[in-house]
Design a protein that fits this description.
The complex is a heterodimer.
Chain A: H1 6-17, H2 23-51, H3 67-75, H4 77-107, H5 114-126, H6 131-140, H7 158-169, H8 173-181, H9 186-194, H10 199-215, H11 218-223, H12 232-241, H13 243-251, H14 256-264, H15 268-304
Helix pairs in contact in A: 2-15, 3-14, 3-15, 4-7, 4-10, 4-12, 7-10, 7-15, 8-9, 10-15, 12-13, 12-15
Chain B: H1 2-7, H2 9-31, H3 45-48, H4 55-61, H5 64-83, H6 85-96, H7 101-112, H8 119-130, H9 135-142, H10 157-182, H11 186-194, H12 199-210, H13 212-224, H14 231-237, H15 243-246, H16 249-257, H17 264-291
Helix pairs in contact in B: 4-17, 5-10, 5-16, 6-10, 7-10, 8-14, 13-17, 16-17
The chains are: A mainly alpha, B mainly alpha.
Chain lengths: 305, 298
């Protein structure tokens, strides 16, 4: 993590060093920040120890018991949802990056109609048709209960496209021109020169798309009614809201889940926490990479909030 | 002109998938807002349903649930301006005072993490610690106090919204201010130090004024987004017992839209009403940002 935001860090390091100030002030600042960090992390820590069998309302872990995870693998529904989420995230990210890169590259050039097309895309960031027309559209496209609904509605994010666009605008023209003189077509230039030399922005946006898609619960909530096709977020939401019913549905037979739970001796609360951990782990795995990149995109991206 | 279009055809081709996407998933639903002026009939579709003029908007004006949600939206958004907007700034200022690079990086890593977790998961995390047998109530009991049903208590629910959204987003929100602080010329601090200004004085007279324009832009944009209120968070945390204080326009639209025998025309009218006000607010905010000599959104 030491290299993250290194420019920002080194700048403020120099500054702090030149500013003087007492040790007491430093101590207070560290104390406040440490308490805040503890408060931020504690809820996650609590989820983690409970997923290993510690009962709720206890600060220190009382046992290390993997039977919640064991049960999740036995029931199968959560694991299946995990893979539905994983596959749709990967497929969706690839497709999204493809059309975002194409669009951003095309919009970074000048030709008739460019500004109109740009305007059409930007306008969608501020105005939409609303829930009902959107729902009716997806219904009419026969996407309800289709896995495509996890990919298509969130195919493109205009903010990410603009971040990429501003990156391409700053791209050294000389590189492209020398390729043109050598007879390379636009498409070759894009795939052989521009994309390979734009890996930072491509990596950053891929990660952001991937996190968005992993976290998307809204599209499946609206358009997935078949519990066997739930991605993990929707399954998790419904597990939180309506634990027994959902668990039984994914276990295949009515009552099967509670029989299994009794047999293995898992409490619902501990099981729920283990499901939450399943949601959080992929994010934790990509988080170090995300963190490396987000300061680059945030100037524009954070406007959306 | 034609020749320029033909010679640039590759760009149109590259844009084609994006344009198709936006036409289908943004502009067709946008056309669908005509539902707000129609009586929707399933067998006739949006196009074939009969027009009813402004009927839905007349209904809307005297629809108490709508005005409750309108009021809640504005109250919650203003609450966020008061109790969340400054927190990101304070976090940035505190992080800026950390001298050791490793610690600063550590704190930032911790503070931004919840931003990447969805409200579905975070609501599960919160239910766990704030619920009846959760750690929060256990501590209250140990201290000899009464348990608080945080998630269904109407008098504290909005505070819960502000606090938990700070937990998720304050660290992320701080980044933009940290970037602005990084742009300050270090010589200013050196000069102030030589003149005997302590850190507190440096904070007030150098750091804060230097990021003032960033703060005002973020504030104006936040005002522009006042009709939103935070659907993801509220939808995942609230329940019937707190509808009276937490039902915002977006959640009302969802509930009305997906109940049996829903009046699609009226629901669309509510959504449209909200979108138009939101668009006007945002356009005004954008105008204000530009007036300040800053680059706006569009």
């Amino acid at each position: 993590m030491a290299e993250d935001n290194s420019v920002l860090d080194s700048l403020s390091d120099n500054r702090a060093a030149s500013r003087g100030g007492s040790r007491i002030a430093d101590g207070i600042i560290y104390l406040i920040l440490s308490l805040v960090a503890l408060a931020v992390l504690f809820p996650f820590y609590n989820v983690l120890i409970m997923s290993f069998g510690t009962p709720g309302g206890v600060i220190l872990p009382t046992k290390f018991d993997i039977s919640s995870y064991h049960l999740i693998f036995q029931l199968g529904g959560v694991v299946k949802s995990f893979f539905i989420s994983l596959l749709s995230t990967i497929a969706g990210t690839c497709l999204s990056m493809f059309i975002t890169t194409c669009a951003a590259y095309a919009l970074s050039k000048k030709y008739p109609g460019r500004n109109v097309l740009m305007g059409l895309i930007v306008f969608t960031m501020f105005f939409g048709g609303g829930l009902i027309p959107y729902y009716l559209l997806v219904k009419n496209l026969h996407l309800i209960n289709s896995y495509w609904v996890l990919v298509l509605p969130t195919l493109m994010n205009a903010f990410y496209m603009i971040i990429m666009l501003s990156f391409f605008r700053g791209y050294p023209i000389s590189l492209e021109e020398s390729a043109k003189i050598d007879g390379a077509s636009e498409f070759t230039i894009l795939t052989r020169i521009v994309v390979p030399t734009s890996t930072p922005v491509i990596a950053a946006l891929s990660l952001f798309y991937a996190v968005d898609k992993w976290n998307d619960w809204w599209s499946p909530l609206l358009f997935m009614t078949d519990v066997n096709k739930y991605p993990l977020q929707l399954l998790t939401r419904n597990l939180i809201v309506n634990f027994e019913a959902i668990l039984n549905q994914t276990a295949g037979a009515a009552g099967a889940a509670s029989v299994l739970m009794d047999k293995i001796g898992v409490l619902p609360d501990n099981l729920k926490m283990a499901v939450l951990i399943f949601n959080i782990i992929p994010i934790m795995l990509v988080y170090p990479f995300l963190q490396k990149y987000f300061s680059k995109g945030v100037m524009i991206g954070s406007v959306k909030g | 002109m034609i020749r320029r279009i033909v010679s640039n055809k590759i760009y149109y081709l590259l844009l084609l998938p994006a344009v198709v996407y936006y036409v289908i998933f943004a502009y067709i639903p946008m056309y669908g807002v005509v539902l707000a002026f129609k009586k929707f009939m399933f067998n006739k579709g949006i196009l074939g349903s009969p027009w009813v003029g402004l009927e839905h908007f007349h209904t809307l004006m005297s629809y108490a649930d709508f005005w409750d949600s309108f009021r809640n939206t504005v109250i919650i958004s203003f609450g966020r301006l008061l109790f969340q907007f400054p927190v990101a700034i304070i976090v940035a200022l505190l992080l800026n005072e950390v001298r050791k690079r490793g610690w600063k990086s550590f704190f930032q890593t911790v503070f931004t993490f919840p931003h990447f977790i969805s409200w579905v998961v975070l609501s599960g995390v919160l239910l766990n610690i704030l619920g009846d047998s959760g750690i929060f109530n256990q501590v209250l009991v140990q201290l000899g106090m009464d348990k608080v049903a945080f998630l269904i208590n109407a008098s504290t629910f909005r505070w819960l919204l502000f606090a938990t959204d700070n937990w998720k987003e304050a660290g992320w929100g701080a980044i933009i201010y940290l970037a602005a602080i990084a742009g300050i010329n270090p010589e200013q601090y050196e000069a102030a130090y030589v003149d005997g200004a302590n850190r507190w004085q440096q904070l007030w007279s150098i750091t804060l004024p230097s990021i003032f324009s960033t703060i005002s832009i973020m504030l104006i944009l936040a005002v522009g987004g006042i009709m939103n209120g935070g659907f993801d968070q509220i939808f995942n945390l609230y329940s019937a017992s707190v509808y009276q204080v937490a039902e915002i326009i977006d959640t009302l639209v969802y509930r009305l839209g997906f109940q049996v025998g829903s009046n699609y025309g009226l629901v669309t009218a509510i959504g449209l009403f909200k979108s138009v006000i939101g668009l006007i607010m945002l356009a005004g905010a954008n105008y204000a940002v530009k007036k300040m000599g800053q680059e706006g959104l569009v």
